[in-house]
Amino acid sequence: MFPKRVIYILLTSLLFISCSNDDDTLIDETDVTDSVLIEINKLRATGCKCGADDMPAVPALVSNTLLTKTAINYAKDMNARNYFAHISPEGTSPIQRAAAVSYTGKYVGEVIARNYSTSAEVVIGWKNSEDHCKAMMSNTYVEMGAGKSGNIWVANLGK
């Protein structure tokens, strides 16, 4: 009996180790608001060129937990269901997704990206996309939240 008990204990330990490692993968599905906010606010502080348009400096954005939740949820959804679009397969828009988590702002914009490693890189990518750049530089928006899942990045901007 002793060897069976030892085997059972070892198998149980491996099961817990495996579960722990599975939980570690959740690190890839994260709130990246602070690091993305820093990078976007650098652009907003100095102004930049979006396509052919010179965008003046605008006030810094602040973090919003509901927009963060919306961004994380949407990044997870796109990653899990393998799609990449501002409108979900069910037809929900960024403002509808934000309202679903009780965000009451009148305006919600969204920037999405994939295959970037860092917040600095993804913000440069958004800056190089005229529409995304203009969204980040819009003085309409005063707050934001950002999330990442796998290689999908989402930032929701709101007011």
Automatic annotation (TrEMBL):
Cite the SUPFAM superfamilies for this sequence. Answer: PR-1-like (SSF55797)
Kindly give the CDD domains that the UniProt entry links to this protein. Answer: CAP_bacterial
Q: Where is the SCP domain?
A: 39-149
InterPro entries membership:
CAP_dom (IPR014044), CAP_sf (IPR035940)
- Keyword Glycoprotein recorded: no
Put simply, this protein is called Uncharacterized conserved protein YkwD, contains CAP (CSP/antigen 5/PR1) domain
In this record, what's one Pfam family? CAP
Q: Among its keywords, does the record have Membrane?
A: no
This protein's UniProt keywords: Signal
Q: Which PANTHER family match?
A: SCP DOMAIN-CONTAINING PROTEIN (PTHR31157)
Superkingdom field:
Bacteria
Q: Which residues form the signal peptide?
A: 1-22
